[in-house]
């Protein structure tokens, strides 16, 4: 069977070798065993179900996918390679769909792409008369509430095993932590599935986090990326529709070719934006999380997160859209406490507080870490990496340590003197002795620590306060207007004057752009 699989790979796809795991997955499925396949985007999942479809003589391979827009491309690519494939979905006329469903029974179609809702409509009609050799469930994380893209239609797919208990099911996804993975297998009623986990490492994508850059710094940075990769493209992910719109307008105003994409646009507008991006009419898309599922564009060279994402799965999937050709790509996240506060609000409304809050915390740890970022990312997916990556900001520019005792004491005593009633920004203003109206109205210019931290800039204080939070000396009370508090541990440090070590704040490095201007 292995030789036949390799022969099919050469003949139909023109590749000489399988990537790791592909052959194992193919032979396991072809032998009739259920599989869970976890492989990053661009890892080569499609071949894992397409080749088994070619290996078996009779029967059709049914591929369930929520990405209706992409089915056509897949079918076109397959038929161009001489593989009889077709799709049934709501983007085609009923006559077309009907025609294809008829042809299924003649055995001429080897691979059928179908949306979950349509499959559930048809399946009772087919019942057992249609020989199915394999059922592949793409984007299988959609079945799980633990996943980040839950789709209720998917949960009814458990019917498949009831109706076709002997047909192997292959569940494929690019994003699933352990909980989601187990949930997928359970909900689809898989029987003793073989689980395959491909490496999530994408070493060609450099990783970087910028702590709380200002608006103009953000724009300059994005402009620098567009200039650096002027013939390729990039994505700016924004936290809301509004901020995606405003980012788009800023970039258009700077003369760049940009387009906006979010779920508030009509389907036509979204399709047009996506097409313009895929065709290379625009250099950048400013988008919300609504953008990108199934995007297969090889020359996306950079991804900027204008805000921190909700969890590491989303982040990983979003940056994974860059560098799919294996060539160098850049992923940068702008991060600020304002993001955490907004995201914490989303978590509170999510109805899944415990898990989502934990996931948000892990994302925050990634953003604030002074350890190799790739190690953190991979360890999240239970992959171990025993060396630093050398391609993230921490590796390239390791933080220097310094004595932060005085800084910690000033910050904590300012929090105590304001009775834990101020947030991040105002605390910095107090420490820096800013003469802002509401600060003065509240009498904070008369406390002892007012101006005690004048020697440090706003970004320095921002970094050190973040670190004090990470160290557990101070905390943000999310349920009390995000006011800062000294923790019990912080109080002990304050009392005992325990030495505190902090990572030295570093100015964002300056780089020359193609135009020779100084840019951040
Ligand atoms: P996924 O569905 O996991 O995101 P795809 O199945 O779309 O990934 O594959 C990504 C790209 O990798 C495609 O261009 C595909 O043709 C290519 N590819 C897959 N398997 C191989 C292989 N064995 N050798 C070379 N290229 C491959
Ligand atoms: Zn690293």
UniProtKB/TrEMBL annotation:
Its cofactor is Zn(2+); Mg(2+). The lineage of its organism: Bacteria, Pseudomonadati, Bacteroidota, Bacteroidia, Bacteroidales. It comes from the Bacteria. It catalyses: Couples ATP hydrolysis with the unwinding of duplex DNA by translocating in the 3'-5' direction. This is DNA helicase RecQ. Belongs to the helicase family. RecQ subfamily. Its EC number is 5.6.2.4. Residues 26-194 form the Helicase ATP-binding domain. It is an enzyme of class 5 (isomerase). GO terms for cellular component: bacterial nucleoid; cytoplasm; replisome. One of its GO terms (molecular function) is ATP binding. Residues 221-367 form the Helicase C-terminal domain. GO terms for biological process: DNA recombination; DNA repair; DNA replication; SOS response. Keywords: ATP-binding, DNA damage, DNA recombination, DNA repair, DNA-binding, Helicase, Hydrolase, Isomerase, Metal-binding, Nucleotide-binding, Zinc.
């Amino acid at each position: 069977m292995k030789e036949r699989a390799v022969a099919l790979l050469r003949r139909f796809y023109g590749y000489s070798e399988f990537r790791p795991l592909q052959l194992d997955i193919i032979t396991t499925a072809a032998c009739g065993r259920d599989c869970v396949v976890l492989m990053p985007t661009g890892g080569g999942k499609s071949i894992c179900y397409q080749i088994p479809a070619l290996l078996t003589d009779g029967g059709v391979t049914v591929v369930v996918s929520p990405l209706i827009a992409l089915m056509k491309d897949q079918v076109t690519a397959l038929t161009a390679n001489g593989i009889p494939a077709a799709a049934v979905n709501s983007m085609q006329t009923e006559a077309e769909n009907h025609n294809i469903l008829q042809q299924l029974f003649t055995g001429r179609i080897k691979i059928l792409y179908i949306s979950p809702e349509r499959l559930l409509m048809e399946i009772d009609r087919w019942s057992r008369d249609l020989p199915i050799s394999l059922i592949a469930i793409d984007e299988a994380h959609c079945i799980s509430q633990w996943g980040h893209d839950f789709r209720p239609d998917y949960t009814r797919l458990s019917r498949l095993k009831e109706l076709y208990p002997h047909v192997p099911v292959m569940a494929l996804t690019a994003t699933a932590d352990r909980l989601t993975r187990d949930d997928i297998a359970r909900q689809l009623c898989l029987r003793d599935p073989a689980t395959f986990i491909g490496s999530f490492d994408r070493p060609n994508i450099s990783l970087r986090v910028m702590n709380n850059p200002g608006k103009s710094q953000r724009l300059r940075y994005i402009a620098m990326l567009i200039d650096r990769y002027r013939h390729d493209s990039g994505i700016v992910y924004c936290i809301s529709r509004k901020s995606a719109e405003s980012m788009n307008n800023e970039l258009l105003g700077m003369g760049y070719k940009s387009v906006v994409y979010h779920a508030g646009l009509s389907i036509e507008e979204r399709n047009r934006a996506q097409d313009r991006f895929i065709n290379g009419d625009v250099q950048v898309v400013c988008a919300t999380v609504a953008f990108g599922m199934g995007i297969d564009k090889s020359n996306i060279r950079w991804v900027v997160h204008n805000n921190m994402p909700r969890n590491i799965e989303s982040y990983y999937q979003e940056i994974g859209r860059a560098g799919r050709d294996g060539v160098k790509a850049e992923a940068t996240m702008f991060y600020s406490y304002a993001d955490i506060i907004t995201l914490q609000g989303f978590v509170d409304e999510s109805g899944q507080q415990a898990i989502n809050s934990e996931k948000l915390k892990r994302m925050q740890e990634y953003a604030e870490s002074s350890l190799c970022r790739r190690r953190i990312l991979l360890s999240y997916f239970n992959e171990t990496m025993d060396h630093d990556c050398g391609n993230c900001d921490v590796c390239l520019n390791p933080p220097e340590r310094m004595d932060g005792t005085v800084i910690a004491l000033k910050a904590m005593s300012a929090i105590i003197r304001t009775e834990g009633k101020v947030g991040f920004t105002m605390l910095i203003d107090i420490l820096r002795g800013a003469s802002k109206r509401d600060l003065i109205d509240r009498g904070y210019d008369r406390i002892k620590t007012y101006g005690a931290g004048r020697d440090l800039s706003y970004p320095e204080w921002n970094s050190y306060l973040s670190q004090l939070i990470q160290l557990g000396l101070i905390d943000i009370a999310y349920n009390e207007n995000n006011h800062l508090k000294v923790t019990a541990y912080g109080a002990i440090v304050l009392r005992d004057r325990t030495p505190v070590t902090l990572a030295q704040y570093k100015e964002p490095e300056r780089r020359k752009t193609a135009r020779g201007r100084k840019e951040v």
